[in-house]
Amino acid sequence: MAYELKEEGFKLKDILLVVGIPESTYHYYVKQLKKIDSNQRLKEQIEQLFFQFKERFGYKRITNELKKLGYSVNHKKVYRLMKEMGLKCVKFIRKSRKYNSYKGKVGTIAKNKLNRRFSTSITLQKLVTDVTEFKCTGGEKLYLSPILDLFNSEVIAYGINKRPILDLVMKPLEEAIGMLKEYATVRTTLHSDQGWQYQHNHWVKTLKKNNVFQSMSRKATCADNAAIENFFGILKQEMYHGEKLVSYEELKSRIEEYIEWYNHVRSKAKLAGLSPVEYRIQTSQSAE
């Protein structure tokens, strides 16, 4: 051991007697030095993970990642070490104006079939969607329209555009329908708010043609679509708020990168500490 005295033909207790150190004291300091070594290695691993995840992870998620690597460590210890190291997730929530696509009754208003029942044990059974707005440099704006699977909170398709046109929501819908035809095992319900895009005849007919139930939130009731609102909050907290405005193309690239990371890497407590894709794969393998 690194800190134990080599006997060199002498007994340890005799050596300690000569130098005047009690054996219990010796073993105490050996233990403390080992602990220092262990903490130093842990600190190095924490620092590596913190910057690997672009400073987006706090102590709880860092603890989860450490456990994936085989460390047996309490979240309180990780919190203490991160505090000592000055590592703090500085991403924060800043309220911004929500994009509102509601223009009154301009088409079909569907019933609220989802009715805030956001959980499901079946993949592709319940999907949610909405549109959110970002500001860019030069006075430009970026609009994002994702479709989220409530089974594992995975973004299965999304559209990005400079304007909130119908094509923004139709492209991800068509992509999602392609997945439903191949992988869905039950009839799907797709939930949205009452935005004009979701009342549009093309949207409504596409859902009916592909045997997808349409569901809508009640007017001015954000809680009816809380799952997608929560995703928007996480996304903006972790990669948009607190950052300098960038061009449309740069922000588009960052969002695409973030969604890939969110799906494949970002762990969620409700998914047993796995990312959405990891959870889907693991669940699929368990069912076989």
TrEMBL record:
Bilayer-crossing regions: none
Entries under InterPro entries matching the protein: HTH-like_dom, Integrase_cat-core, RNaseH-like_sf, RNaseH_sf, Transpos_IS3, Transposase_IS3/IS150/IS904
GO biological process: DNA integration
Single GO MF descriptor: nucleic acid binding
Domain Integrase catalytic: 119-284
NCBIfam families, per the entry: transpos_IS3 (NF033516)
PANTHER family in alphabetical order: TRANSPOSASE INSF FOR INSERTION SEQUENCE IS3B-RELATED (PTHR46889), TRANSPOSASE INSO FOR INSERTION SEQUENCE ELEMENT IS911B-RELATED (PTHR46889:SF4)
Function of the protein: Involved in the transposition of the insertion sequence.
Protein name per Swiss-Prot or TrEMBL: Transposase InsO and inactivated derivatives
Organism listed in the record: Carnobacterium alterfunditum
